[in-house]
Q: What sequence folds into this?
């Protein structure tokens, strides 16, 4: 065999880098999944009772979940059923003695082990991002899911 053929340099394939495209594609896929789950939940869930298992959520996230129902006018923490109005919740950015203010203080002290899971009703979407930013400014982890307007949510251990 000829010596020049034995030691040929093989260069890596040249071409466009697809990683930015794949990142955008994954973000789009996530957004479409959220949109589809919202539509399905709103159209099929009216008037039903849903049970949420905190153990299942804890297995997924590794943190203890605290479920909150947000409808745009009131914040209800479960299972305690502490109710706070929108005006009370946003007073002093949540630094107050309302049920939600006390709830945030509790979570702030336990941010390494606990997080808040919002069930957001359609009537609450417009104001939810303000509430979400108020919670995340405190370095509290959060999750959220759309939840139909007429359905009831029951929290189980």
A:
């Amino acid at each position: 065999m000829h010596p020049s053929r034995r030691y040929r340099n093989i260069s890596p394939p040249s071409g466009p880098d697809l990683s930015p495209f794949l990142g955008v594609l994954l973000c789009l896929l996530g957004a479409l999944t959220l949109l589809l789950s919202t539509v399905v939940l709103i159209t099929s869930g009216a008037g039903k009772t849903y049970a949420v298992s905190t153990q299942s959520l804890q297995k997924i996230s590794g943190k203890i979940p605290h479920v909150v129902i947000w409808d745009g006018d009131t914040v209800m923490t479960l299972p305690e059923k502490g109710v706070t109005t929108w005006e009370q919740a946003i007073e002093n950015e949540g630094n107050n003695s309302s049920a939600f203010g006390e709830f945030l203080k509790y979570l702030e002290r336990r941010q390494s082990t606990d997080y808040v899971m919002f069930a957001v009703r359609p009537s609450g979407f417009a104001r939810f991002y303000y509430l979400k930013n108020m919670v995340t400014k405190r370095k509290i982890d959060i999750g959220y899911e759309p939840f139909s307007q007429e359905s009831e949510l029951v929290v189980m251990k």
User: Anything to note?
Assistant: Residues 76 and 83 are 5 Å apart (CA to CA). The first strand starts at residue 49 and ends at 53. Residues 19-156 form one domain.
